[in-house]
Design goal:
The chain is an alpha+beta fold and about 350 residues long. The protein is built from three helices and 25 strands. Helix 1 packs antiparallel against helix 3. The protein is elongated, with a radius of gyration of 35 Å.
Length: about 350
């Protein structure tokens, strides 16, 4: 919020007006210095921008080079903008690895003003400052190393050493400024919020799209924070989703071999089907048998496209006489899910 003021000078000579450091936050003034002609006037603008809710009173001091001072009382009240999210939690259904699933929600602006919003990675400006300092330290180390290795540039006679240091300092200063915004904005390898920033018109709303792109077969949960102009605190949004691996299944859970002859080789066909939307690879997992004997599988590995099915040939033989139960296991490579059936 801004307001205009006028300084008049009723003297016969021109004087200089100084405002600069004579007003405290959340108020600011522009221009901070100026000249007032004899009998003339000068307009300046006072801005009020508070990061917290409450009433604020400050004094604006106008100092003249003649030693005179004028004190202006400033008063401002900051309130919470009526801007809110339709949902504070988004749950996205199971999604196959490598594919995308979308969900959406609204941000409502019930004020009479245009408000800006931006999705942040951290919950508040205090955490932002800590992260910025960490970035500065990291870049400062890189900058110091780069300044010391100016040999290639010097050999090519491009710049002298002191000029090289100036160039490096400027480059890394620009990099820090650019990286600040990139690092502090929300970003995640599995979730995207679109748009990531924008403005909402008075008494209006904007639709936000959440895109889920799992790269693993596991549960995912992240938090994003909506930084809204006019809101004292960032609004948290929790997003959850489940990554689904290839949907491969065996045609049996238990295989009863019945009475078999010791030392003889017995064969069984095991069918694997892919009823999901992405391809998958399943391989046999050899293991030591508690009953003794040996289980072999041909082939060792199968690759199945969606709606495909293929067959493993399992062979079993043992020199031991008696009842037996053995778990035969297979591994889905993409999701590390174990499939198994009982051979008895």
């Amino acid at each position: 919020m801004t307001g205009n003021g006028v300084v008049e000078r009723r003297m016969e000579k021109t004087v200089r007006k100084l405002i600069g450091d004579k007003v405290d936050c959340p108020f600011s003034v522009e221009p901070r210095t100026g000249r007032v002609q004899a009998g003339g006037a000068m307009e300046f603008c006072v801005a009020f921008q508070s990061q917290t809710v409450g009433d604020f009173c400050k004094l604006l001091t106008v100092n003249y080079e003649t030693g005179e001072s004028v004190h202006i009382k400033l008063h401002g009240t900051a309130g919470e903008a009526n801007v809110y999210l339709e949902k504070n939690q988004i749950v996205i259904g199971d999604t196959f690895m490598g594919l995308k699933r979308e969900s959406s929600f609204l941000i409502f602006n019930k004020t009479k003003h245009i408000v800006n919003f931006r999705w942040k990675r951290l919950p508040d400006p205090a955490h932002d400052n800590v992260e910025i300092e960490r970035l500065k330290e990291s870049f400062e180390m890189v900058k110091d190393l780069e300044m010391k290795k100016n040999v290639p540039i010097k050999q090519l006679c491009h710049v002298e050493r002191n000029q090289h240091e100036i160039v490096c300092d400027r480059i890394y200063s620009d990099e820090i400024e650019a990286l600040k915004q990139q690092e502090l904005d929300f970003k995640d390898r599995n979730f995207i919020l679109l748009p990531g920033f924008g403005e909402i018109w008075p008494d209006n709303w904007i639709e936000i799209t959440v895109i889920f792109m799992p790269d693993k077969a596991q549960n995912f949960c992240v938090k994003a924070y909506c930084d809204i102009l006019g809101a004292e605190h960032r609004i948290p949004l929790t997003i959850t989703g489940v990554g689904q691996g290839p949907l491969l299944r065996l045609n049996v859970r238990s295989l009863d071999a019945g009475y078999i002859v010791a030392q003889a080789v017995h064969s069984y066909e095991i069918v694997v089907t892919n009823s999901g939307d992405i391809p998958g690879t399943v391989k046999f997992m050899p293991s030591c048998l508690s009953f003794g004997g040996k289980i072999c599988c041909d082939p060792k590995k199968l690759h199945l496209n969606p709606d495909d099915y293929k067959t493993f040939l399992i062979t079993f033989n043992s020199n031991t006489v008696g009842n037996f139960e053995e778990n035969v296991k297979f591994l889905i490579e993409e999701s590390h899910e174990v499939l198994q059936f009982m051979l008895k």
